[in-house]
Amino acid sequence: MNARPKKSFGQHFLHDRRYLDRIVASIAPKDGDTVVEIGPGEGAMTIPLLAAARRMTAIELDTDLIPGLQARAADVGELRIVHSDVLKVDFTALARELGAERLRIAGNLPYYISSPILFHCVEHAAAIQDMHFMLQKEVVDRMAAEPGSKVYGRLSVMLQLACKVTPLFTVPPGAFRPPPKVDSAVVRLVPLPPEQLPKGDAANIYKVVKAAFAMRRKTLSNTLKGLVDEATIRDLGIDPRARAETLPPGDFVKLANAI
């Protein structure tokens, strides 16, 4: 029996087998991979992932969905269900608990809290091999945007400083039940190796990026006033009259290190 999607959880269940197959093929799980799915819903993606990996963990907040998931998984493999808000899950601790060097995370994320979930996962990037998420296409466009793009912003910079972001394909509203009012897209995030991560204080990087994009039409000398002065910005080889949307991610690290 199909579950009734709940607006309070932002549920849109993916049911189109063509797109489910493409997602699973993109993840390409293997026996022995430590797969963790966020928001498995009715298990449409869970079951093929479990069939390949043989064991996996699913994080589900909606208690009404858990019995159905357990029943569908019973003859497929070993499914461990964690009943929790994903924002409260410590992925680093979960990896240790599962005896995994790194996790492979996947999920059709609730669109209304997708950014907090992304940032939460990035905080645990050292314990994650890769991530494959279904998101609102507009969010995926922002995640992968390059400097100079109208949608390049705080999300673009912070994610690209931590991960390689690769949009994979678009999914139309009709592939879901109920259909969302927007197009969706699948994206792959692969955490960068330690040598490619920014060298600097994470709190200062966040502070600079947030301030720089707070007023997109203003120049860096205005938005960073009180953090980095105009002369210092110029000494870093950055034009103080430039706007944040023109700077590559690495320049924000330089600015943060100048605080």
UniProtKB/TrEMBL annotation:
<protein>
    <recommendedName>
        <fullName>Ribosomal RNA small subunit methyltransferase A</fullName>
        <ecNumber>2.1.1.182</ecNumber>
    </recommendedName>
</protein>
<keyword id="KW-0949">S-adenosyl-L-methionine</keyword>
<dbReference type="Pfam" id="PF00398">
    <property type="entry name" value="RrnaAD"/>
</dbReference>
<keyword id="KW-0963">Cytoplasm</keyword>
<feature type="binding site">
    <location>
        <position position="85"/>
    </location>
    <ligand>
        <name>S-adenosyl-L-methionine</name>
    </ligand>
</feature>
<keyword id="KW-0489">Methyltransferase</keyword>
<dbReference type="InterPro" id="IPR023165">
    <property type="entry name" value="rRNA_Ade_diMease-like_C"/>
</dbReference>
<comment type="similarity">
    <text>Belongs to the class I-like SAM-binding methyltransferase superfamily. rRNA adenine N(6)-methyltransferase family. RsmA subfamily.</text>
</comment>
<keyword id="KW-0694">RNA-binding</keyword>
<feature type="binding site">
    <location>
        <position position="39"/>
    </location>
    <ligand>
        <name>S-adenosyl-L-methionine</name>
    </ligand>
</feature>
<dbReference type="GO" id="GO:0005829">
    <property type="term" value="C:cytosol"/>
</dbReference>
<comment type="function">
    <text>Specifically dimethylates two adjacent adenosines (A1518 and A1519) in the loop of a conserved hairpin near the 3'-end of 16S rRNA in the 30S particle. May play a critical role in biogenesis of 30S subunits.</text>
</comment>
<feature type="binding site">
    <location>
        <position position="60"/>
    </location>
    <ligand>
        <name>S-adenosyl-L-methionine</name>
    </ligand>
</feature>
<dbReference type="InterPro" id="IPR020598">
    <property type="entry name" value="rRNA_Ade_methylase_Trfase_N"/>
</dbReference>
<keyword id="KW-0808">Transferase</keyword>
<dbReference type="GO" id="GO:0052908">
    <property type="term" value="F:16S rRNA (adenine(1518)-N(6)/adenine(1519)-N(6))-dimethyltransferase activity"/>
</dbReference>
<dbReference type="InterPro" id="IPR011530">
    <property type="entry name" value="rRNA_adenine_dimethylase"/>
</dbReference>
<keyword id="KW-0698">rRNA processing</keyword>
<dbReference type="InterPro" id="IPR020596">
    <property type="entry name" value="rRNA_Ade_Mease_Trfase_CS"/>
</dbReference>
<feature type="binding site">
    <location>
        <position position="14"/>
    </location>
    <ligand>
        <name>S-adenosyl-L-methionine</name>
    </ligand>
</feature>
<dbReference type="InterPro" id="IPR029063">
    <property type="entry name" value="SAM-dependent_MTases_sf"/>
</dbReference>
<dbReference type="InterPro" id="IPR001737">
    <property type="entry name" value="KsgA/Erm"/>
</dbReference>
<dbReference type="GO" id="GO:0003723">
    <property type="term" value="F:RNA binding"/>
</dbReference>
<feature type="binding site">
    <location>
        <position position="108"/>
    </location>
    <ligand>
        <name>S-adenosyl-L-methionine</name>
    </ligand>
</feature>
<feature type="binding site">
    <location>
        <position position="12"/>
    </location>
    <ligand>
        <name>S-adenosyl-L-methionine</name>
    </ligand>
</feature>
